[in-house]
């Protein structure tokens, strides 16, 4: 990565506006998972220790440009204050009187947290006046919100793109995410195996195509496997299929052949009469070969032979990236495929990278988190990185000289 980080500039006495990702899960006003707060701590602590005036901002949930106290960041300010062991001044607005006062009064080594940026309609609309006002709070912009780096919103990119802040650098979280993921994509230690799952092919079109060019083996599971199987002429019963993507799937099968890459599809599958409702309801299932899927049933997980096949493929790898569950893992009866892949990743010595979202949750739930090389904090952002896209929240930052 060639972007400047907080280490490359002098932050002493400077007002640093730090875009963090404090979009933490909450239940009844209580934070249920602090990972995102913890992810931002190295940068916040570094800035405090180096005498910066730290002004934090983040979004939380989807309040759609309206003030909605369900999504207030106040509980995060309180918790952050406990973790840091110092006061975090909470501004009750983003660019209003409260924020003006907090920013005017902040001293070196002190921390302010602004209210949810998405309480302002200008955030998602990239409104110039909003960005200009936010920029007036800082001398330096620090982006450390990897989870929103793929969004081109006011506080994630536009504030710099419009030229309102000149000094724009990344924090340690973005630096780490990029150095692990971008490096593995550009210079993977081979064999390089990519595992893709999840519901829809359409969501991962560009990822599949880009990864086929980079990896040696591409493994497909989850709901999207059935569109591939249908493209190969199989009867997939009532399984999730995106008929519009059949041509694309055929192209990908051909692309893999012409590039001499291995493309793994399920050889057997777990079928049931219908989708579980509720999702964790008890369900009666069968393991069948993909050539023998009953017309009135649907595939909801990879079968046992496929689990073994995929686990073996993972074992041969030196680099593995994984995004998307192998089946409806929210249901214990349909979690076998996802568990098998997670276990194979946990057991290999290869560099293992989990691309956030459901796969990260599954790995954490199974207790394998500390066995992985890297678990990304951004599901959407890491997918866009796997697609080969440049993320706006990173592209806008200053290059190293
Ligand atoms: P995604 O957001 O695209 O990563 O998809 C994740 C979702 O895909 C999870 O909620 C899974 O339950 C769902 N999923 C995985 N396999 C299947 C399948 N075979 N049929 C329907 N949904 C699936």
How is this structure best described in words?
The protein has helices at 35-49, 74-84, 97-105, 121-125, 128-135, 154-161, 172-186, 205-214, 225-231, 246-258, 304-315, 336-347, 357-365, 379-386, 392-395; strands at 15-19, 26-27, 30-31, 53-57, 88-90, 111-113, 140-143, 167-170, 192-196, 217-220, 262-264, 268-272, 286-289, 298-302, 319-323, 351-354, 374-375. The protein is elongated, with a radius of gyration of 23 Å. The chain has 15 helices and 17 strands. The chain is α/β, with parallel strands linked by helices and 401 residues long. The two termini are 12 Å apart. The strands form four sheets. A six-stranded parallel β-sheet has the order 5-6-4-1-7-8, sandwiched between helices. Adenosine monophosphate is lined by residues 198-200, 203, 222-223, 240, 299-300, 324-325, 327-328, 330, 357-358.
In short:
This protein has 401 residues and is α/β, with parallel strands linked by helices.
What's the SSE blueprint?
Elements: E1 15-19, E2 26-27, E3 30-31, H1 35-49, E4 53-57, H2 74-84, E5 88-90, H3 97-105, E6 111-113, H4 121-125, H5 128-135, E7 140-143, H6 154-161, E8 167-170, H7 172-186, E9 192-196, H8 205-214, E10 217-220, H9 225-231, H10 246-258, E11 262-264, E12 268-272, E13 286-289, E14 298-302, H11 304-315, E15 319-323, H12 336-347, E16 351-354, H13 357-365, E17 374-375, H14 379-386, H15 392-395
Parallel strand pairs: 1-4, 1-7, 4-6, 5-6, 7-8, 9-10, 9-15, 10-11, 15-16, 16-17
Antiparallel strand pairs: 2-3, 12-13, 12-14
Helix pairs in contact: 5-6, 8-10, 9-10, 11-12
Adenosine monophosphate binds next to strand 14 and helix 13.
């Amino acid at each position: 990565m060639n972007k400047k980080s907080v280490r490359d500039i002098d932050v002493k006495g400077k007002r640093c506006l730090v875009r963090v990702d404090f979009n933490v899960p909450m239940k009844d006003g209580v934070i249920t998972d602090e990972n995102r707060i913890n992810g931002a701590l190295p940068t916040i602590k570094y800035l405090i220790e180096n005498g910066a005036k730290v002004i934090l901002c983040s979004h939380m949930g989807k309040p759609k440009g309206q003030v909605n106290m369900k999504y207030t960041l106040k509980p995060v300010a309180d918790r952050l204050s406990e973790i840091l062991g110092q006061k975090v001044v909470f501004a009750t607005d983003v660019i209003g009187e409260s924020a003006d006062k907090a920013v005017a009064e902040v001293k070196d080594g002190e921390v302010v947290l602004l209210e949810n940026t998405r309480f302002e309609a200008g955030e998602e609309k990239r409104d110039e006046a909003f960005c200009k006002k936010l920029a007036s709070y800082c001398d330096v912009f620090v982006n450390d919100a990897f989870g929103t780096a793929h969004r081109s919103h006011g506080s994630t990119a536009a504030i710099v793109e419009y030229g309102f802040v000149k000094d724009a650098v990344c924090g340690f979280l973005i630096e780490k995410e990029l150095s692990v993921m971008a490096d593995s994509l550009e210079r993977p230690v081979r064999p390089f195996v990519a595992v893709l799952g999840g519901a829809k092919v359409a969501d991962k079109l560009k990822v599949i195509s880009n990864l086929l060019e980079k990896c040696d083996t591409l493994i497909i599971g989850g709901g999207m496997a059935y569109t591939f199987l249908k493209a190969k002429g199989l009867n997939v019963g009532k399984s999730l299929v995106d008929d519009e993507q059949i041509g694309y799937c055929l192209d990908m099968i051909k692309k893999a052949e012409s590039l001499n890459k291995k493309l793994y599809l399920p050889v057997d599958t777990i079928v049931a009469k219908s989708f579980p409702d509720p999702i964790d309801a008890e369900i009666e299932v069968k393991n069948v070969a993909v050539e023998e899927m009953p017309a009135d049933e649907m595939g909801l997980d990879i079968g046992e032979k496929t689990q073994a096949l995929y686990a073996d493929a993972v074992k041969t790898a030196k680099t593995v990236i994984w995004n998307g569950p192998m089946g409806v893992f929210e249901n214990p009866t349909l979690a076998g495929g996802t568990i098998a892949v997670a276990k194979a990743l946990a057991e290999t010595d290869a560099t293992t990278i989990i691309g956030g979202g459901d796969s990260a949750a599954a790995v954490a739930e199974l207790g394998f988190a500390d066995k992985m090389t890297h678990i990304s904090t951004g599901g959407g952002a890491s997918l866009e990185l796997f697609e080969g896209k440049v993320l706006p929240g990173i592209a806008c930052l200053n290059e190293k000289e």
